[in-house]
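Progress report, Aim 2. The chain analyzed during this reporting quarter is listed below.
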Amino acid sequence: MPYPFAVIFMIALLSLASPVSAKSWDLFPRPPELTQDIRFWTRVYTEIDNDQGFIHDNRYLNVVYETTPVPANLDWKTAKKRIQDRRQHYQGILLRLAKGKRQNLTTEERRVLKLWPQNVSNQTLHAAAARIRFQRGQANRFRQGLIRAGAYKPFIFNTLNSLDLPRELAVLPHVESSFNPAAHSHAGAAGLWQFTRPTGRRFLRIDQVVDERLDPFKATVAAARLLQHNYKVTGSWPLAITAYNHGAAGMRRAKEQVGTSDIVAIRQRYKSPTFGFASRNFYVAFLAALDVDSQARRYFGPLQPHKPEKSEVIALPDFVPVKALQRALRLDQTTLKQSNPALGSPVWEGHKYVPRGYELRVPCVPSCRRVKTIAALAPWERFERQVPDRFHKVQGGQTLSHIAQRYRIKLRQLVELNGLSNRHHIRVGQVLQLPLPADGLPTGHYTVQRGDTLSGIARRFGITEQALLKINGITNKHRIYAGQNLRLASSSSEARRNQVSSRGKEHRTRAKTTSVVLREETTPTKAGTLQKAAMVTPGGGSCEPLLPPECDPALSADPSNYTVTKDGTIEVQATETLGHYAHWLELSTQQLRNINGLPVGRSVIMGQRLKLDFSHITTKTFEARRRTYHRGLQETFFERYRIIGTEEHVVQQGESLWVLAQQKYQVPLWLLRQYNPDLDFSAVVAGTRVVIPRLARREEKSLPMASVEIKGKLLSASRREG
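Predicted structure tokens for the chain:
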């Protein structure tokens, strides 16, 4: 049915008034039904700072009851009570109006009634009483984001262009972090693009030594790849952007449930416990950010965005103590830390080395070309292996604070290192990872333990076996004994001379022949200011994302459907067997065979639908167990591998996807399915195009960003030298 003339006329007026191009309109549609909601988020971004907020209806966003002051530095309990008092005030008014009161109205009742259509029903008003919400303003944060964005947008545009993605996606950090690369949320998301740990680990290194979510450049490449994946899975940019918050699987379920990919229909009709206010509004918030970003002068007046700062990036050929780098580069720790926010506190506190292959970013002050100083590091300042971790097994009666005090480490560091959500919840027998204290670096002496070998000790402390033999006067490397006291290579000036003797030639050669990547790149100016703003916005409020994610973060990039349909059936996913289903359902496999008419010996096939029996457990319990299994499977895999890109394979006659996945590309079938969710794996014919994720082992040296090839292009922030 064609649009009424009035609607067409409205669209024409909006197209004239909006700075968004016609191409952008095609990629990011703005149906008339979204106009009021886009306007609401524009007001959030431009009219009020985060010391105030709107009390509004969470369904009809044009209904704003009041702007109420709630200072960002107000303590949580006081702020919550103030908001609750204002909500109850309007709930009372709406409930009185819902009883049909239209006469003898107070001034406040009359004002509230005028916010609704003239013929509003009592039923509508009664429902509205349960939908009152508070939205904190963002104008000051958006203004700061516009200033910070200048340091990162050139690189973001280059990245999007390299992957053939729309440049409009560059405004998404306004919604996520206000372009704050050090932002953290209470939900565990971090960085410019607000990656959670499980999603981020698909593309980035995230551990106690390096958290690349905090590197705005690596995180940008990861976000672009995730958005590209979302688009391939969902088929439209409104759904791909919503999937950034709700997850690709959630948006596929939304399409199936509503029967369309229309964003308006999905926002209005899709019902899911996890599709809440944030997910429902993520796309319109993005559109509002796009408008405000393109008309920044109109809303905020003249601004002076940060300029990209020239820096060089050097891939380290060895594990190196950070103090050695500071000395060689003649930089203080503050300056080096500002340029390398991805390095974790164990590195800066001396518990861990800067890892081999890490791309160290060095500001070009007064000039670049410091690669020679890195190559000239002393042999005893280079190590073949990382400092090993220690572990503690929790005993009865112990608390986390007690354990931290025992090992003289910070409680916060122990919590972060082990990914603990609550420092009060540890259990007897739990194994906790401990950082190695500064005096645990390879200096001094080591007492041989039963089962030790000389080569193992050398590897553990990152020194050569030959140096260890010479220092301790050992002629037979197989003749060591438990209790023997060994001197380590860096324990004295003599040890250093011995290590120079054993490794000097090797390292002198390496200094000449090692391919050290050097390039000029962009980093933000005033980095110290950005770091201090990591957790606090002006006024003292926490730097929470505007619309926090509403999906299972561990499976947010997984488009597979792990739910049970109303008729009690499921779709078989990769790696699942009848044994899995029987275990999760607390049944026998034979019972499942009988229900589905499966003879003994026949396996289930990925994509097949099965009828299940929920006589022993609920569907909710089954879904939880199923997701836990796949979460563990994927987390274990991404501890060892990360995704560095994709390629396309055209299926040839006689090829099977199993052979392609397991033998040619060495990709697990479940991951191949995630990148090809609409492909029928049981009926693939010659000529079918299959997207293959490219993987890299995490143990291997990371590819420098400047040499990551995407569709034949080299991705770099600026020119490459060296």
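Residues 569-634 form one domain. Residues 1-19, 438-443, 489-542, 700-722 have pLDDT under 50 and may be disordered. These observations will guide the mutagenesis work planned for the next reporting period.
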